[in-house]
Amino acid sequence: MKRLAQILRTSAWLGWQVEANWADPALFLVYAIAKPLATTLILFFMVKIVSQGNATAETFRYIFIGNTFFIYVTEVLIGISWTVFRDREDFETLKYIYVAPVRLLPYLLGRASTRVATATLGVLTALLFGRVVLGLTIGVAETNWLLLFGAVLLGLIAVLWLGIILAGTSLVVARHSMNLNEGLSGMFFLLCGAVFPLDVLPHWARSISLVLPFTYWLELLRRMLTGHGFAKSLASMSDGDLWRVLAFATVVLCAVALLWFRWCERFARERGLIDWKTNY
């Protein structure tokens, strides 16, 4: 465990150096804060203009909460797989991981912690901005903040293991498949109810939505922060049901990720893909 903690800590430090080496810490923090704020303002003015001022505060609160917590999906999910591409083809250091006394999986998890930290900063900043500047009601008297933290953490664990699945895929595919990872993130954004209510989606799309764990995650977070649900498709499910589905999905993702990543890693080593160069 001591060795594992050391690997996680060192790879997290390396991740920070890679992500923020272009600016001093203060400037990088400004960038990390400005990005989610800009996204929030874009959504705010889009809703205001498209609805011609008729959108209710509740409508925007639905969009705001979903978009804010979806930052974890976009940052962490893409970030883990992007680590494989950059280390393999930009820095050409991935092959050295295999000759060092370091396993690739904990190394990737450590690198992902940097993305988790910056995403958390963005989420907290956006929530504070929405509460103070936009006047949104974030949290009600019934909100259990400790339980909310647990729900966020559980969903984040699911995001991390899905990112490991994509990282394993990245080991055996060419660099331009990065478009696949971004496309998957966009599909989740559309189908998980991040900004589009499930009930406005076509029936076939709604069926896919009900299979995705992040659909239940975002609905649970909205219920905890507002005191009521939003998706009619999930109205029959209690908060406990949402917890159970999310926990089950997280366990399944963990098991699948471990099996898939080990297979991809073994395949990449057998085919000599660890130092593969596929960029143009």
Describe the structure.
This protein has 280 residues and is mostly helical. Helices cover 74% and strands 0% of the residues. The protein contains eleven helices and no strands. It has helices at residues 2-20, 25-50, 57-69, 71-90, 94-97, 104-132, 145-172, 178-191, 203-209, 213-226, 239-270. Helix 10 packs antiparallel against helix 11 (239-270). The longest helix has 32 residues, at 239-270. The relative contact order is 0.13. The mean pLDDT is 89.
Gross morphology is globular
Q: Low-confidence runs (pLDDT<50, min 5 residues)?
A: none
Q: Give the averaged pLDDT, no decimals.
A: 89
Q: In sequence order, what are the helices and strands, one letter per element?
A: HHHHHHHHHHH
Percentage beta strand = under 5%
Rg:
20 Å
* Helix/strand/pairing category: mainly alpha
How many individual helices?
A: 11
Regarding quaternary structure, what we see is single chain
User: How does the major sheet shape up?
Assistant: none
Distance between the termini: 41 Å
| Share of residues in helices | over 70%
Counting DSSP E segments of at least 2 residues, the number of strands comes to 0
Characteristic key phrases:
11 helices; 280 residues; mainly alpha; single chain
